[in-house]
Amino acid sequence: MTQGAVEQSFRFGNTELPPDAREAARRAKRLAWLTIAFLVTAVTSVYLVMGSSQAMKAAWAEDLLSFIPPIAFLVALRVTGRVPSEQHPYGYHRSVGIGHLVAATALLTMGAFLVFDSVSGLLSGEHPPVGTVVVLGHPMWAGWLMVAVLAYTCVPAVLLGRAKMPLAEQLHDRVLHADADMNKADWMTGVGGIVGVLGIGVGLWWADSAAALFISASILHDGVKNLRSAVAALMDSRATTVDGSRPHPLGGAIDETLRALDWVSDAASRVRDQGHVFHVEAFVVGRDGMPTQAQLQKAWDAVTGLDWKVEDLVVVPVDELPEELLPGVRGGG
Amino acid sequence: MASNVAMTTGTRPTRPARWTAAAVAAVALAGCGVTVPTDPDGTLTAVRGGELRVGVSPHEPWTVVGPDGVPAGLEIDLVEGFAQTLDADVVWSTGGEEELVDDLERGELDLVVGGFSASSPWTSKAAVTVAYTTVTDADGKPEGHVMLTPMGENAFLVELERFLLDQEVSAP
Questions:
Q1: Which residues span the domain enclosing B131?
Q2: Three-state secondary structure call for residue B29
Q3: Between chains, do A200 and B165 touch, taking CB under 8 Å as contact?
Q4: Helical H runs in B57-172?
Q5: Residues A190, A99: Cα–Cα separation, whole Å
Q6: What's residue B26's pLDDT?
Q7: How far apart are CA B158 and CA B155, in angstroms?
């Protein structure tokens, strides 16, 4: 393997990243650390002013859970950098999927717990006490301080989320995508908390628990959504775009590239998402029987040239496309 | 799908805008007439110019209940002073802590005193005030002394806390 040749390079196993993706990985890493730094300040300040507000507790839990995705991303980035070995011939790309699954499970568990907590608060009619704090010698209602802290936590999260989203797409990193998605939605937590605290202020005791319920439901929703896509990826479902919304366009592009070769009469492939990179098995039917070694090599070069994500490619010459390995090949074109 | 596109390009308020509007409305509501904080059960309004129903649990030297049933002590003086600022008459009842806290939860008392510390186990059933004085406990750790008010009656709580913070109290 060509190791240690260039400057500290970002790689996903055997895959050397092209310069623009390398730059994206570097920026994503920096943003992940920035997120962690911001979360430390957010968690500390919310904890200090939290008092007995249920909504503040839920917002604090969400901030605390937000540590998991950036940490999982940084760990996965390190682990996937390892070159495949005899013990791990497929490389370490699956660490992304594992990180994603762990983050999703944490979100789901915490969301469910907080939903239960705020519903029981509502049902038992808990009246949250919010008293006075002394700030620089002046006594003031603690609710104002809570509103200020929640407003602070809204802004940087959204900015970080927006900055991370395009990088997640470029690097095809689902953990980073989940992280960016959560950050982008974080303002709802902040505003929900503010509404809850102001509700306490105007004497609506239930506003706090209701806001907490809203926040915890959004945590639960994040958990369910991420668990689905994490499990789907680990189950080797068809490779999708990073947000899981549609089949990845590379799948079609691979088939088209192969079919465009003059010696190929038909081709189809199955593509699974290893995390960052794809694992492709392409089946090709030659016009005149068995293709030559040079023809196969050219086919391999053409497909791997499509995108850095498809380097782990197997081209299999066959007499006819194996339907049992390519479900749907008969129906589709 | 089509309605999504319309939302981003049309003039309908986006989700953030609507939320902001709601928050602004809440603040505006707070600005005109409604004081922040407000009591859900109106304790402060009821006490002002009326009765302040106080439970006393004997805990010398903070609260002392004499043989004739008349309470005395540092916290009694503080409560009398607070009642004066509200133009209220104090109605005392004495009893054990648990009984008094139950009455507080049921809304039959407005305030309970009894030499409670900030680490009191009653914090899940009653709202504790800020510490009006701090003493050193048996382990040499600083310990704030507090009073108990009904859960969530925040206007009353803040009124009492502002009064307590204004007092120069030295521990007995």
A1: 43-166
A2: helix
A3: no
A4: 74-85, 97-105, 154-166
A5: 26
A6: 57
A7: 5
Task: Decide if B36 is inside a domain.
Answer: no
Answer yes or no: do A195 and B149 touch at CB < 8 A. no
Distance (Å) from the C-alpha of residue B66 to the closest C-alpha of chain A?
Answer: 33
Q: Is residue B37 part of a domain?
A: no
Q: What is the pTM of this model?
A: 0.81
**Cα gap A193→A208, rounded to integer Å:** 8
Q: Contact, A55 vs A117, CB < 8 A?
A: no
CB B117 within 8 A of CB B61: no
Asked if the structure places residue B69 within a domain, the reply is yes
My answer on whether B96 and B126 are in the same domain is yes
Residue with token string 């596109």: B5
Q: Are A194 and A78 in contact (CB under 8 A)?
A: no
Same-domain status, B6 and B59: no
Domain count, chain B: 2
Report the chain B residue with the minimal C-alpha distance to residue A147. B23
Which of B23, B30, B149 lies at the smallest CB-CB distance from A195?
B23
Please tell me which of the candidates A139, A143, A204 has its beta carbon nearest to residue B162. Answer: A139
Contact A122/B at CB under 8 A: no
Using CA atoms, how far apart are residues A141 and B155, in angstroms rounded to an integer? Answer: 9
pLDDT, one tens digit for every residue, chain B (172 residues): 334 433 334 445 555 566 666 656 655 555 556 788 999 999 999 999 999 999 999 998 899 998 888 899 999 999 999 999 999 999 999 999 999 999 999 999 999 999 999 888 998 899 999 999 998 888 888 899 999 999 999 999 999 999 999 988 877 7
Q: Which domains does chain A have, with CATH numbers?
A: 11-234 (1.20.1510.10), 249-318 (3.30.300.30)
- A178, B5 Cβ separation under 8 angstroms: no
Instruction: Single out the residue of A318, A233, A225 nearest to residue A279, CA to CA.
Output: A233
Residue B7 covered by a domain: yes
